[in-house]
Amino acid sequence: MFNLLPLLQKKGIIGESDIDDITKESQESNHSVEEVLQGRGISDQDILTAKGEHWDIPVRSLKNITIPYDILQYIPEESAIHYHVVPIALVDEVLEVGIVDPDNIDALDALNFISTKKGVPFKAFLISERDYKKAIEMYRGISSQVGQALSEIKTEDDKSTSGEVSSLGEEQETQNLDDLEQTVQAAGKKGQSNDIREEAPVTKIVATILRSAIDARTSDIHIEPEYDQTRVRFRVDGVLNKSLVLPAKVQRAVIARVKILAGIKLDERRKPQDGRFSATIGGRRIDFRVSTFPTYYGEKAVLRILDSERSNITLQDLGMNEKQLDMVKKAVAAPYGMVLITGPTGSGKSTSLYAMLNEVDKDGKNVLSLEDPVEYN
Q: Is pTM, for the whole model, over 0.85?
């Protein structure tokens, strides 16, 4: 049976005398050895590295990582819970999978079965128990809440058609969807609040999308109609990831809700429109800049997230190494010159510039910023 403590003692992370104490504490408290170690200040990374070296398997931290919904679909939630495995990403047509216990033969057999069934090879990475639990929560996040709201819409549709069978077919369904959109519009006309409300099903869907995007540190939300579905994508670190797929029938109502929040014309669907709104999410104020565009299958909406907390970021928070950090600080402190920043949408250009502004001595210098549009204030 695998024993983690001698490995940590060999690496000098714990002393020889600690082994018996930790084992005894684990037995008496009914906590795992890893939980006891964490309680004593041993980091997840130290534990994970020792285990990875023992099993000769690469390790992966899931800190600040959001697993897209389409990736989670590779392994059903029930299987992920039973075998203690989670899908992480699809890289070069290879499914990267996080596993807690590489000695679990059943888990490896299950992964081989899923790999064959899905027609995609997999590569296993060792992850911590804590990261595994966070990943499992992602199954119950955006998809679960949106699924519940969609079921409420279906229930309302069923109630509206239960009295008699209509011979109008698609015309009757279209009428129901028009009613749904009008309900969303009417709710918006009653008065706007800075809080994200969740009474109506479609309002729940939009609120869930906004909250999930904030949690994932998303820079842009794309709501895109297609022939038979509505695709929702989040841009994280400059890369668009499919996060959710909605039925095509709710597209108009979802876009209507976004338009109401942004204060733009509901009945204008043939021209691009721009607007913005603010909302209180998780106790803090978030600004959203909204653009809508007409497409073949309906209107598309793009929401740029302007989180004021990002304007308080420092150069140290940007993840540069010591040499890069020193070079940037010298450039910012220079009495003259120019610093150019380039990169794709959502890659952190504005965030980097605000971090540089925060580095400037505003008390001793006259600082002006020219911005179009102004993202943070």
A: no
